[in-house]
Automatic annotation (TrEMBL):
Family to which the UniProt record says this protein belongs: Belongs to the LysR transcriptional regulatory family.
Domain of life: Bacteria
Single Gene Ontology BP annotation: DNA-templated transcription
InterPro entries assigned: LysR-type_TF_proteobact-type, LysR_HTH_N, LysR_subst-bd, WH-like_DNA-bd_sf, WH_DNA-bd_sf
PANTHER family attached to this UniProt entry: GLYCINE CLEAVAGE SYSTEM TRANSCRIPTIONAL ACTIVATOR, HTH-TYPE TRANSCRIPTIONAL REGULATOR
The protein's name in its UniProt record: LysR family transcriptional regulator
Tagged with keyword Transcription: yes
Domain named HTH lysR-type: residues: 6-63
UniProt cross-references to Gene3D superfamilies, sorted A to Z: Periplasmic binding protein-like II, Winged helix-like DNA-binding domain superfamily/Winged helix DNA-binding domain
Organism listed in the record: Hwanghaeella grinnelliae
Molecular function via GO: DNA-binding transcription factor activity; sequence-specific DNA binding
């Protein structure tokens, strides 16, 4: 029977080591030495009269009891951190990560609207194609990712996209609905787990059997820049294209022909879903992705709304 609560330092050391899978990394996070982490964990095991780690030659692994305790402690420390964040002005900074294309083409042009609605919240945006481990990187409040399956970090699935062809207004006007010998600009995903959006699906939907030239890029925003420059038609999501269409930088080619795409998903730690700054941002995202772009081209956009 435990008559006294183990020290907070030993609990923090154990939680960090369990979450990161390393005494060394836990020491770096806590700004102490690995020896200190080992000592605190040993003290906790003695206080509980339980073995929490199996110590091997060059590694450590959690026992079943250690796994059970680690999961509860991670939730508890996260809730403590969030409680402190609610009373600290400096914690009104929302740090999020998303793909370069979504960040540049959808999010950045609209962030001013969020800041006007919530001036007390500052958004710090990071972009990249590599997934971020929200369990390990506690700087990140939420992530917006393209595709992927459901999981414990899923907070919200945003509306599904439609895929179509977009080009500069001049090019689309000159083509007059004919795609023969056109240059098609496509994205070839760097992430192997993402199923590609295949041009042949659009061509089949358009009942086209002629010839086209295909140029591939690793990033969607590179595809967009080439399309804006009039170098071809971009195979693109309406989610990313609608703002560009509204600003007359792109125009839909054959807006009557679109194919289903995937969806963007908001990821965050389940225990943080109701933190005020995160909840407000998710609400704003949900609303923004269900509204047409505000411009005189709204009627064209409505054709490809999911």
């Amino acid at each position: 029977m435990i008559h006294a609560m183990p020290s907070l330092i030993s609990l923090r050391a154990f939680e960090a080591a369990a979450r990161l899978g390393s005494f060394k990394q836990a020491a770096e996070e806590l700004s102490v030495t690995p020896t200190a982490v080992s000592h605190h964990i040993r003290s906790l095991e003695e206080a509980l009269d339980l073995q929490l780690f199996v110590r091997e030659t060059r590694a450590v692994r959690l026992t079943d009891t250690g796994k059970q305790l680690a999961g509860r402690l991670t939730i508890a420390f996260t809730e403590i951190s969030d409680a402190l964040a609610d009373v600290r002005v400096s914690e009104n900074v929302l740090t999020m990560t998303t793909t370069p294309a979504f960040g540049a083409l959808w999010l950045a042009p609209r962030l001013e609207d969020f800041q006007k609605a919530h001036p007390e919240i500052t958004v710090r945006l990071e972009t990249g194609t590599a997934p971020v481990d929200l369990m390990r990187d506690r700087r990140i409040d939420l992530a917006i990712r393209y595709g992927g399956g459901d999981g414990p970090l899923l907070a919200q699935t945003l509306p599904h996209e439609r895929i179509g062809l977009f080009g500069s207004e001049k090019l689309v006007s000159e083509m007059d609905g004919r795609i023969d010998d056109a240059t098609i600009l496509c994205t070839e995903w760097e992430q192997p787990d993402l199923a590609p959006v295949r041009l042949d699906e659009w061509l089949q939907a358009a009942q086209f059997k002629g010839r086209t030239t295909i140029r591939k890029f690793a990033q969607e925003h590179h595809v967009v820049q080439c399309a804006v420059a009039g170098q071809g038609l971009a195979l693109l999501s309406n989610v990313l294209a609608d703002d560009l269409v509204a600003r007359d930088l792109l125009a839909p080619f054959r807006p009557d022909v679109t194919v289903p795409g995937r969806s963007y998903k908001i990821l965050c730690l389940p225990e943080r879903r109701r933190v005020r700054k995160i909840a407000r941002f998710i609400e704003w995202l949900e609303h923004g992705l269900t509204q047409p772009a505000q411009a005189n081209t709204t009627d064209r956009l409505q054709v490809i709304q999911p």
